[in-house]
Amino acid sequence: MTAPVFVVDSLRPQDLTAGAYVLDGPEGRHAVSVKRLRAGEGVVLTDGRGHWAEGVVQAAEGKDRLVVTVPGGVREEPAEQPRITVVQALPKGDRGELAVETMTEVGVDAIVPWAASRCITQWKGERGLKALGKWRATAREAGKQSRRVRFPDVADAATSKQVASLLADADFAAVLHESGDAPLSGAELPAAGDIMLVVGPEGGVSPEELALFAEAGARPYRLGRSVLRTSTAGTAATAVLLSRTGRWS
């Protein structure tokens, strides 16, 4: 079992004092009062943006303060290539958080919530902001649990036209759809740059959206013979791409 990961707001060499970092606040409380970490135990600190450090607990103070020595200093993990973004149509209920959680665990780099025309769920006003906050919190927690030091970006919710604009700028773009005449497992992929996958809602991607995305350069691909739910399709497709791009080698 690798050392537990704790997320900090900033992790730069200047954030260390005499080679040590003080972990406090909610993460400090979790480390001291929940994890009950003690002197000599290992931890990993990260800002979730690629900066990280392996540390050793020097002391636990009170209920929410952990002093961590960082003998190796702060390191930076470069962004993976190619970068994989999943445009995820809004699922019903809490299946959106499930999709974010599992995609984060397998290694997706960015997630774009998509208000597709056939989505039953719509993010509006305060309810939409709350839902977006849940997705971002889920990505953060799943990043910690899967021992990542670079968490996926969760963008603001996008319209179909905004998604098309993103697809047009990608180095490879695909729509997961049963009408695809080619398997995603056989697609020609770039060695670097941006890969974008579109996952439709339970009701499917509309013909108008398929046409709009095709104009932007995103053709339909299929995963297999079965049709996956929207909350699992992105995870399965990301796994296929990670194995083919060498990121899982």
From TrEMBL:
One GO MF term attached to the UniProt entry: methyltransferase activity
Q: Which SUPFAM superfamilies match?
A: alpha/beta knot, PUA domain-like
User: What's its catalytic activity?
Assistant: uridine(1498) in 16S rRNA + S-adenosyl-L-methionine = N(3)-methyluridine(1498) in 16S rRNA + S-adenosyl-L-homocysteine + H(+)
- Report the superkingdom from the record: Bacteria
| Pfam families attached to this UniProt entry | Methyltrans_RNA (PF04452), PUA_4 (PF20260)
UniProt xrefs under InterPro entries:
Alpha/beta_knot_MTases, PUA-like_sf, RsmE, RsmE_MTase_dom, RsmE_PUA-like, tRNA_m1G_MTases_N
State the compartments where it is located: Cytoplasm
Every copy of the Ribosomal RNA small subunit methyltransferase E methyltransferase domain together lies at 80-241
CDD domains in alphabetical order: RsmE-like
Function according to Swiss-Prot or TrEMBL: Specifically methylates the N3 position of the uracil ring of uridine 1498 (m3U1498) in 16S rRNA. Acts on the fully assembled 30S ribosomal subunit.
Q: Which family does it belong to?
A: Belongs to the RNA methyltransferase RsmE family.
Q: What is the name of this protein?
A: Ribosomal RNA small subunit methyltransferase E
* Organism per entry: Streptomyces ardesiacus
